[in-house]
Design a protein that fits this description.
Blueprint lengths: L1 E4 L1 H5 L3 H12 L7 E5 H6 L1 H13 L3 E7 L6 H6 L4 E4 L1 H5 L5 H16 L3 E4 L5 H10 L3 E2 L10 H8 L10
Parallel strand pairs: 1-2, 2-3, 3-4, 4-5, 5-6
Length: 170
Amino acid sequence: MSVNVSPIQMRRSDVLKDLKRVLAETGLPPERLTLEITEGAMIEDTEAAFSLIQEIRGLGVQVALDDFGTGFSSLSYLRRFQLDALKIDRSFIADLDSGTEAAAILHCMVSLGRALGLKVVAEGVETAEHARFAQAAGIHLVQGYHFSRPLCLADFEARYGRAQPGLQVA
């Protein structure tokens, strides 16, 4: 399960306490949770963000850099923050339709993520061509309307059945 964390939430002093409470109340294994944090949230107060991310990872929760490529994209953050996943912004996938430069940039992003040992996720996969590109490029997980529009839990279960242990849905 992935959850977006806003810059405002990152600044809250009780965010770690809330995270521990939610994990305890739901029984969700921490390793099944990924918090998605944007580059902007990390640069507002780099030291505080670094400390918080280390504490979150210490709980066993994974951390993904969301919307990679749309902000400052400091490569030093990728190394320093010890992230688990890199989510490539949907705009880069959409640009695939415009030519080979977009594909070259995407290949570089994927290569960088994989070389750093990060799980690479592509947002905005809306066509079969996008899905084929993602698979050929070595992207680990994809999200987008090509597979499904957002669903509430009841509709998800009706369409795909109940989630099974080990089933990975992005």
